[in-house]
Design a protein that fits this description.
seven-stranded mixed sheet; 3 helices; 7 strands
Length: about 150
């Protein structure tokens, strides 16, 4: 598995409402289905109010790191940004993501609003498929990470 770029700038975002990786997978699959039906293609889009000022750095190999239940648990490569106007007339930004997600080593993260920039040096490392036990809860991942066992 290819490791994430060591110079890329990334975003970290709470995966609000998700309890597990399976919840993230369900969201990705739902958005991809909707986008395919709309003729947009196989892309996961996440709409946010703010547009990142450091867009070019994010597009140079960056990812969005998802925080699930207080733990950074997975990432998705950022493939683009698109301006969108909501039904309320407010302009927003769709972060276009590769639907193929990558599990990461668990990294505790306090709650925050919106998204934050995350340098490659501070980002958790990718974990190889199969290393993380299927069904491992974020809580167990956090405890094992805090004990230095993951």
């Amino acid at each position: 598995m290819q490791q994430h770029s060591m110079t890329a700038l990334n975003l970290v975002k709470l995966c609000v409402g998700a309890e597990t990786i399976d919840d993230l997978v369900a969201r990705i699959e739902s958005r991809v289905r909707i986008n395919k039906a709309a003729g947009v293609g196989s892309v996961h889009d996440h709409v946010t109010r703010m547009h990142p000022r450091r867009e070019s750095e994010l597009l140079d190999g960056g990812s969005i790191y998802w925080v699930i239940k207080g733990i950074v648990s997975a990432r998705q490569p950022i493939i683009g940004f698109e301006k969108r106007t909501g039904t309320d007339g407010i302009q927003r930004t769709a972060i276009l993501l590769d639907p193929a997600f990558v599990l990461t080593e668990p990294q505790p993260r306090r709650a925050f609003q919106g998204w934050r920039y995350l340098t490659a040096e501070d980002a958790p490392r990718d974990i190889k498929r199969g290393k993380r036990q299927k069904g491992m809860s974020p809580e167990l991942g956090r405890e094992l990470a805090e004990l230095g066992l993951l």
